[in-house]
Amino acid sequence: MSLIDLLTGNTSSQVAEQAENKFGINRNQVIALLAVATPLIISYLRNKSQDAKEAEALNNALDKDHNGSILNDPSQIEARQAEGGSILDHIFGGQKSTVENQLSQNTGISIDKIGPILAMLAPVVMGYIGQQKQQSNVGAGGLGDLLGGILGNASSQAQTQQSNPLNDILGSVLGGGQSQSSGNPLNDILVSVLGGGGGNQQQQGGLGGILGNIFGK
Fold first, then answer.
1. Cβ–Cβ < 8 Å for 127, 12
2. How many CB atoms lie within 10 A of CB 135?
3. What count of other Cβ atoms lies within 10 Å of the Cβ of residue 212?
4. d(CA 186, CA 126)
């Protein structure tokens, strides 16, 4: 299963449905958030995996807790929300509030609901990575290449399938998210793709403009 399949398939729909029911948020807004946040999380993990200790810790966490079963068991999504919050604390560290603020500005989802929705998403993303790790049979040393490959393949797929708003979002995010000039996924995706720090919602070709067209912002 590719990253695009994850974001456009049943698992993503289950996250959106549960978030809609729990927080009263438009499902399309949740899907748009997932389309941005998922590659962002993977980008952060890829950068962290360049450090040997971080790679080993991630490898151990994937082996222990993230075998991919959550992808076929929607009941785990809400049940593992608290765990998801801890995952995000580790992934984003001191940048967590900045990430949440940027995502709130660019999706129109209130800041008090961004964190809980991301916490529902995080175990799903980890489960997906764990599944891909098992299928590829890689250890700690191969995680960086695995995560980079997930993003690269998704970028290529999204760029050739821009026939609906979700693929437009994915193409925009993944296309811009491949730039590693700053070495910082927050800058590479949130700043570059979402529009110079999030202040310019209508940047042509950026996520703000796409979401504006979808939600009439």
1. no
2. 11
3. 16
4. 19
> In this structure, how many other beta carbons lie within 10 angstroms of the beta carbon of residue 199?
11
Residue 7 CB neighbours (<10 A): 23
State the Cα–Cα distance between residues 124 and 32, nearest whole angstrom: 16
Min mean pLDDT across 6-15, 174-183, 200-209 is at 200-209
| CA–CA separation, 158 and 98 (whole Å) | 27
Residue that has been written with the tokens 């961004």 in this structure: 114
> How far is it, in rounded angstroms, from Cα 92 to Cα 103?
13
Q: Which residue has the tokens 């995080």?
A: 122
* Residue found by looking up tokens 């950026």 in the block: 206
HEC profile for the chain?
Answer: CCHHHHHHCHHHHHHHHHHHHHHCCCHHHHHHHHHHHHHHHHHHHHHHCCCHHHHHHHHHHHHHHCCCHHHHCCHHHHHCHHHHHHHHHHHHHHHHHHHHHHHHHHHCCCHHHHHHHHHHHHHHHHHHHHHHHHHHCCCHHHHHHHHHHHHHHHHHHHHCCCCCHHHHHHHHHHHHHCCCCCCCHHHHHHHCCCCCCCCCCCCCCCHHHHHHHHHCC
pLDDT, tens only, 152-175? 888 888 777 756 666 666 766 776
